[in-house]
Design a protein that fits this description.
Helix content: 10-25%
Number of helices: 6
Largest sheet: 9 strands, mixed
Number of strands: 9
Strand content: 25-35%
Distance between the termini: 51 Å
Length: 248
């Protein structure tokens, strides 16, 4: 019987900054991850406990209102995360590009549903398909730290951000099936052909959240870690045009 190969479990001493990279733009692998992922996890915090929310989002390298890498989200004004943001605008985001379905374990568990049975792993083709999560699709996860801001209601910036966010999160039939899943409001209107996306973006009561990206950390599935930070070109001028390690 063939021995099941396990992925290498390496780790780096990452309690402090590890392999730091500084640039005026995001690392290319972070940009790719943000463009490909459907959702992100948003962590806000009150004075005691962190609060994590699964969010639709829109990533833009810049906007007409800011030259910095920006992430757009929308939120219910009465939600826990909104209250946290008002009191503490510092946030962390987690984005990853791998499928989160748990692979089968060596011992079957009758209380777990959704995992393929052990018999499925006996086929080389099945094994290949099951392990694709840790090869072609499993690449990195990235933690992003930044400062959030609630856009002024009724402003031109809010209108522009909602338009871009709706455009980026309209998926047709799939979105219609997900209507009301994330942050929908009962009184929000819908747009013809919008696939239900407008239920969590449109509406006067929906607030737009802008996150200016500051820094982050990339971790790959092998345990490798790389820290990065984004500084503006003005900051670079103030530092004597320091060399850009990652970016242009």
């Amino acid at each position: 019987m063939a021995t099941v190969q396990q992925p290498p479990l390496n780790w780096e001493a990452s309690a402090t900054t590890t392999h730091p990279q500084v640039s005026s733009t995001l690392p290319s692998e972070v940009v790719t991850c943000l463009k490909n992922a459907r959702f992100l996890h948003l962590a806000t915090c009150d004075s005691v406990f962190p609060h994590v929310s699964l969010m639709n989002y829109t990533y833009l390298p810049s906007t007409p209102f800011s030259p910095h890498p920006t992430i757009i989200m929308t939120t219910n004004p009465a939600s826990k995360k909104t209250l946290n943001l008002i009191n503490n605008p510092r946030v962390s985001l987690l984005v990853h590009d791998w499928v989160s379905h748990r692979p089968p374990t060596r011992t079957s568990d009758p209380e777990r549903e959704g995992s393929p049975p052990p018999e499925a792993t006996r086929s080389s083709l099945a094994t290949l398909l099951l392990n694709i999560n840790t090869t072609a699709l499993s690449s990195i996860s990235t933690t992003i730290n930044g400062v959030a801001r609630l856009v002024d209601p009724g402003s031109e910036e809010e209108r522009w951000c909602k338009e871009k966010h709706l455009e980026n999160n309209t998926f047709g039939d799939q979105a219609r099936e997900e209507r009301g899943l994330f942050g929908s409001t009962p009184n929000a209107g819908t747009i013809e052909g919008g696939g239900g996306a407008s239920c969590f973006i449109e509406g006067e009561e929906v607030r737009v959240v802008i996150v200016r990206v500051k820094e982050g950390r990339i971790a790959d599935w092998k345990g490798g870690v790389k820290d990065w930070s984004v500084i503006s070109e003005d900051d670079q001028d103030g530092r004597g045009r320091q060399e850009i390690v990652n970016g242009v």
